[in-house]
Structures are given as C-alpha cells and as structure tokens.
Design brief:
Blueprint: E1 2-5, E2 24-28, E3 32-35, E4 38-40, E5 45-49, H1 53-66, E6 90-97, E7 102-106, E8 108-115, E9 122-134, E10 140-150, E11 155-159, E12 162-167, E13 176-178, E14 185-187, E15 193-194, E16 198-200, H2 219-234, E17 239-243, H3 264-279, E18 283-287, H4 319-336, E19 342-346, E20 355-356, E21 359-360, H5 363-381, E22 386-388, E23 409-414, H6 422-436, E24 440-446, H7 460-470, H8 483-486, H9 500-513, E25 525-529, E26 550-556, E27 562-569, E28 597-598, E29 620-626, H10 635-641, E30 644-646, E31 661-662, E32 666-673
Parallel strand pairs: 2-11, 4-12, 16-17, 17-18, 18-19, 19-22, 23-24
Antiparallel strand pairs: 1-3, 3-5, 5-9, 6-7, 6-10, 8-9, 10-11, 10-12, 13-14, 14-15, 20-21, 25-26, 26-27, 27-32, 28-31, 29-30, 29-32
Helix pairs in contact: 4-5
C-alpha cells in the first residue's frame, strides 16, 4: 500500500456542510491516502478514499441520526448525506490506462472491523470512508481519477490522480465467460474450458425471528459458514452458489431501506469468502435476491415502506423501489465485482414464487423488471460478470432467458425417483439448450422431500446426480442443494459424498493433460444409453431384452473423435437399497433391489453392456477407464480386458460387456478414435 502525502485544501465551508443550489468543483488533496501501487493481472487494487471534512461530517450526521429512527428513515426529510445513496453522494473513479482506455468504477462506503479479544464479535477499526476496488487484465501504467459529488449539497471534489502499475501474471485465469459455441464456460484470460462442479453453500445457519440471536450474530456464526467452503475446497470443488439474502447472511440490505451500516461487519465476512474463493480456484454464483423476502419475510422487507408499495407485487412496478433496488445492486458490484471469483450474478431466485393473496407476478412484469436490472448491470456498471435469473418452474413467454444480457439459463429440479431425477435432468438440459442456445446450469437439485430426507439415506443419490449431469450437455455438474446434509458438521470431508468431487476433478485434470477440454471449437453433444425419446418411454415395466442394465451418459465431440462420460449399473439406486416397499418409488423400474452385472450367466435375460451410437462406421476407438472412488473394485479388470471397441456399418459400437460379475459397476471413461 502507498501513502499519498500533500497539502490539505480547506473548504470555504470550514468543515461544515450547508445546502447549496450551485455546484462548486474543487481540487482536494488529502493529507494521506492509502492505495495499492502495484498489482498483478486480475489482482485487487484498493484505494481508501479520504473524505473532506465537509462530506465526512454530513455522513456522520446521517449515520448517527438514522440509527435512532425507523427503517424508513431515508424516505423522510433526513439530515446529512446518506453514503449508500448515489443521489446523495456519488464517488466515481475513472481508471485511465497509458493507452487511453478508460474504465469507470464506483466507490462504496466501507467500515473496517477487527475481532474482539475473545474473537467473538467485531470491533470497528479506523473511521468509515469510501473504498474503490478494481482489477484488470491490461498491463502497464494506470491513473485513478477520483470525483466526489454531492448533488444534495451542491459539492463536487476532484482529487489529484494517483498512479499504479499492473504487471503480468503467468498463472492468471481471469473471469468466467461463455465459450464461442454458447454451451460451456471458459477462463477469459486463457480461453481454456472450465468444467464446473460444486454445490450450494448459500448461507450460514438460519436464525428465525423469534431467536434471541436474530440480527445479533457472532463471529462464530460466520466462521461455521466458512468451514463449509474449506471442506468443499479440500474436495476440489470449483463452483459454489451463495446467497446475499436474509438477516443471517452478508446481504447489504435486510430490514432498513438504503442504509447498510448495520450490515458492514457481515459484509466483511463475505470479503473473506471472496478472497478464499480466489485463493482456492473457486468461482461463485451470487444470488442477489429471492422470493423469500416477498413471502415469509415480507414483514422485514424495507421496500414495503415506499409510498406506492402496499403488497410484494408492487415492488416490481414501483419506479422508486426500482431506484433503491439499483442502489443495492451497485453496492454489491462495487464491493465484490472486482473479483474474478464472482463469476455469475443471479438477479433473483425463483421469482415466479412471489405472490400476494394467490395473485402472482405477471410474466410481463417479471420480464420488464428483470430486463431493466440486467440493462443497468450491463450498460451502467459494466462488469465482466455473467448474469442470470431463475424460476422454480419454467421460463415462459416473454422469455427472460432469451434476453441478450442474460448469459446463463438456470434450472431448479428436485426429484426422488430415478426416472424423475437423473433422467429428467438430462432431458431438461437438452430441451432448454435447444430453446435458448445458452450455457445451462442446474443450480438447484436434490431429493424432493422434507429437506434432504432421502439424500441422507444413501450417497448414491448425490453420486448419480453428480456424474450423470456432468455429461448431460450442461456447463458442468448439477449444483446440489442440501449442503449441510452432504457435509455433516463433525464429519471429515473424505467420509462424505462431497468427496466424489475429488475423483471428478482428477478426471477433468486428465482431460486437460490430453487437451480434450478445448470445448470452444468442438461441440460436444450429450448421448445417453438407453435413450428414451419421450416421458411415456421412461418407464419400462421391467429391464427388457432390448436395452441394457448398464446406463451411460456421454459427451461426443462434433468430429466424433472423442467420447467422454460415465457408466453405471442403473439398478444400483438408493431406493433399491432401502428394503422398504413403502419408500420404493412407484414410478421407478421394477426391481426393488440391485441386480448384479453378470456376464457369465448365459441364462440371464438382462443384457449388461455399454454401447455408443451415431459414430463413424467401421471405426476403432481406444477406451480408457477411470475411478469414481478410492480403491475401486474391478478397475484393473476393466483396464486390462477392455481397451478398445469397433463400430459397425451403421456407426453403432459393439456391445462392451464387463469382464466380471458384481453389483457395483461405476466408471468414468475416455474413448478416442484411432487415426
């Protein structure tokens, strides 16, 4: 950090603030400024902007006065300057590169904290002021030009420019962005494909309003939350979905409109989450809002105080509510948008659930509101962060996911039954990609029953979703929801179902070493076998002779030279392990217990083979098998006995029979066509 020394310009206001009708532009040279004088590509630049006494005193007046008033204080004729309202004070920084390129970023009001001596609570450190954060991939010399304007008091201060340098970083990966074929993600700096896999860790433990801890959280509350990220990193997860919603999270705004002061300590904890993600190669999808504050949390929603808002539905039609909503979005992006780890912003989660007295938001309202927020982020804030929204059900006309500045389609789907779980997820991805031609993320899925009840029964639910969806044509694996079920508090991560991610990540690393993950130029198409063309065909009443007991999910590149995927015994399913006919899903396949793969039994009417279709005719492929867990049974038999296959004149591969008899059949594979 560098300290800029100079002469203090004394305002003619003498340190106090009075309302003015004429703006005065003045050069302000602080006695001391703290900023970063050198950064690497995509590294955080910070400039702690000192405020003139006239501004600082007016902000203090607002902060002190507002704490003694109601949550709608900002709607009154309040005293001082609200630092969270850009209409009161706008701190903008113009970053100018030596080439002449300019980027605008906005300062945000910031209070630093340190922990109390017993590390249980936060203690303010130094005075609150404005901070600007910035990162870039453009190396060379930069200048930062600060402009502080208070329209309310007719004040404009410009600061002496500061200089800093950006140097190359050979390890930089950059932000995530869509690949050219719109199916996957890639690192913006290297254009290498990013195959996402991770889970939801949306928020710390929920604290209900009737708890004495409600809005009185300790450091421990957030440290317990951070522990989930540490476990996910150990399992090599690379994508986490998090939420800035509710009192118990790091959301800037909860029950007080346009005043984030009481949330500053919590937001500092989210600063740490962002930094942890950067250090551990994780990318975050940040949920900016959800249906909850408009349904069960309406009593705390600060937008209900706005004059033309009387129901939750009105928030999305009120011009004043939209203005304040953009202020919150601007704060989120100004504080955390600098970070490449901030990959995706979900404007609102499951907006179609918002209702009042059985009346739901109109689809046209959802479309216009989402479009306005997306336009604001894209055209005004201009961060290289992908945008999405979300529905509990389906996007319907007018399609929000069809908007030009909505980059990603997200799917929520919960199911307990095999045919209403991994098979439907595959079909849903296929349908949505054809409709919108954008990357697909299944960013919520799990057992559809009483908060993960079925997910607790067997790790097979998690494992089968993880591996099947990785090869179903989306941007990566499904992001499953019940994080505290998958990661029990006192269990080592190696003993949880999350550990399957470590084997998937190892497989992805192998693809990297073979330079297979260049998904930019190759269009990988998903292929499932057995393939059913419609819902009525999901449900064979028994495993018939025509189709295999073995099921595989694969991605085949457009040149038909490479096939990657996962294959398993489809009867090896959680419900077939319960021994309880009342739990056994009525729409699942007939077996009520796993059926062994048995290649030796010639009397077995059930076929057990792997097969691929739509390949070049009369071609030979080398196939290599990989583990989905530690010390996997029969791995050596697979590797030694099955290392190639050929196709017939119709491009269908020969049937690949497992060289063993066992219930367990569960492998990743890479097949490459011989030249």
């Amino acid at each position: 950090m560098k300290y800029l020394l100079g002469l203090l310009f004394i305002s003619f206001f003498g340190g106090s603030v009075m309302a003015q009708t004429i703006s005065y532009t003045q050069l302000y040279i602080p006695t001391q400024s703290t900023y970063t004088d050198s950064i690497k590509q995509y590294e955080k630049f910070e400039y702690l902007i000192p405020l003139h006494d006239s501004i600082r005193n007016a902000i203090s007046l607002f902060i002190n006065d507002s704490m003694a008033h109601t949550p709608d204080y900002v709607l009154s004729n309040y005293s001082g300057i609200n630092p969270y309202n850009p209409n009161d004070i706008d701190v903008s920084v113009r970053f100018v590169h030596e080439s002449g390129q300019e980027i605008i970023r906005y300062g945000f009001y910031y209070q630093q904290f340190e922990y109390s001596s017993d590390t249980s609570y936060w203690v303010p450190k130094d005075s609150a002021t404005f901070l600007v954060r910035f990162s870039t991939n453009i190396t060379g010399n930069w200048n930062a030009h600060v402009r502080v304007e208070s329209e309310k008091y007719g004040l404009i201060y410009t600061y002496k420019p500061i200089e800093f340098t950006c140097t190359p970083d050979s390890l930089a990966r950059g932000y995530l962005q869509k690949t050219k074929n719109n199916r996957y993600f890639e690192y913006s700096h290297t254009n290498k494909t990013f195959v996402m896999h991770g889970l939801n860790i949306p928020h710390p433990k929920v604290v209900p309003p009737n708890s004495p801890l409600f809005k009185k959280y300790s450091v421990l509350h957030f440290k317990e939350y951070a522990a989930y990220f540490e476990k996910a990193a150990k399992a090599r997860c690379n994508f986490i979905r998090v939420a800035l919603i509710g009192s118990y999270t790091s959301a800037p705004e909860f029950d007080v409109l346009s005043n984030f002061t009481n949330r500053q300590a919590f937001m500092q904890e989210f600063d740490s989450i962002i930094e942890f993600a950067e250090t551990h190669g994780m990318y975050l999808e940040i949920i900016g809002d959800s249906f909850g504050p408009y349904l069960m949390g309406w009593q705390f929603n600060p937008y209900k105080h706005i004059s033309d808002v009387s129901t939750p539905l009105d928030v999305f039609n009120s011009a004043e509510a939209r203005m304040y909503y953009k202020h919150r979005i601007r704060y989120i992006f100004s504080r955390w948008g600098y970070s490449p780890a901030f990959s995706t912003y979900q404007i609102i989660n499951e907006i179609d659930q918002i209702s009042y007295n059985s009346e739901k938001l109109l689809r046209t309202t959802i479309f216009s509101w989402t479009s306005e927020m997306a336009d604001y982020i894209t055209n005004t804030l201009q961060y290289p962060i992908m945008l999405t929204s979300n529905y509990a059900g389906f996007d319907m006309k007018p399609y929000v996911f069809a908007l030009d500045n909505i980059d990603v389609v997200t799917i929520h789907y919960y199911g307990n039954f095999r045919n209403h779980d991994i098979l439907n997820l595959y079909g849903r991805v296929k349908t949505d990609w054809k409709t919108f031609n954008k990357p697909i993320i299944i960013d919520e899925t799990g057992g559809h029953h009483s908060y993960g009840t079925y997910d607790k029964i067997s790790p097979l639910l998690y494992k089968n979703r993880l591996f099947s969806t990785t090869f179903s044509g989306g941007a990566g694996s499904a992001i499953q929801y019940y994080w505290d079920v998958y990661l029990p508090k006192n269990a080592p991560v190696e003993q949880t179902c999350i550990w399957y991610h470590s084997y998937l990540d190892e497989f992805i690393s192998i693809l990297d070493s073979l330079t297979i993950t260049n998904f930019n130029t190759l269009q990988f198409e998903p292929q499932r076998y057995p393939e059913y063309t419609n819902k009525n065909m999901y449900n064979f009443k028994e495993y018939d002779l025509e189709h295999s007991l073995i099921e595989q999910f694969a991605l085949i590149d457009s040149s038909k030279n490479t096939i990657i995927g996962w294959t398993h015994n489809r009867s090896q399913y959680w419900a077939n392990h319960t021994g309880d006919s009342t739990v056994w899903p009525s729409d699942d396949d007939i077996p009520t217990k796993p059926i062994a793969i048995d290649w030796k039994n010639t009397n077995n009417s059930l076929h057990t083979f792997v097969t691929f279709t739509q390949l070049p005719p009369n071609a030979t492929y080398k196939i290599t098998w990989y583990s989905t867990k530690e010390n996997q049974k029969n791995m050596e038999k697979m590797k030694n006995c099955i290392n190639s296959f050929t196709t017939d004149e119709n491009g269908n591969s020969e049937q690949i029979f497992p060289p063993f008899s066992d219930i367990e059949f569960d492998f990743l594979f890479i097949a490459q066509k011989n030249k």
